[in-house]
Write a structure and sequence with these properties.
six-stranded mixed sheet, alpha/beta, 226 residues
Amino acid sequence: MRPYNTEIISVGTEILLGHITNTDARDVSEMLSRIGINVKYHTVVGDNPERLRACVEIAKSRADIIITTGGLGPTCDDLTKQILAESFGLKLIRDENELRWLHDYISNKRNFTPNNLSQAMLPEGCTVFHNQWGTAPGCAFQAEGVRVILLPGPPYECLPMFRACAVPYLKKLTGETLVSRQIRVFGMGESAVEALFRGEMEQMSNPTLATYAKEGEVMLRVTAKA
């Protein structure tokens, strides 16, 4: 199996302003590690089309898999689908099944407004991830040698959609997994622990060994891939 390197692009000005914590990237990274897919970069960008487009171009140059979170809603600043489709030369096509479901779902709760139509517009040829936890569908597609996954931003939608839809999609790419164990060390500082284990840390490649300073303790993390 070839190694796959991933970049997660989290879209939302509210993250940059510190109004919310970016738990999406943390949760997606954790689940990717369980199926043996490496996360190389986390990127956060505001709701700005030019900056998002620039981030996508950078990600295309260094990642095999791009996963975006956020920006799939019905408002004018939700531009993730449009920018990703443009960046990979794809058209946005209305998905009639998603449109019917959206219309029925939203009409039962409130008025269906014209901007809700945008949520049913998806990149041509994509695999649709139906949103059982909200309104905006996610999707996956492959273009220019890169696999792209688009997920909604709200954590109560992002995490279950990734688990139910994206993980089965990605599992086809790899038969590997990552496993980590933590060894907690008390009574020593990080520099002393690192000095004690430096020889092992420099020689080990699988598993790897790394130190992390915590409040009142030092954590040694041992990670193996197979």
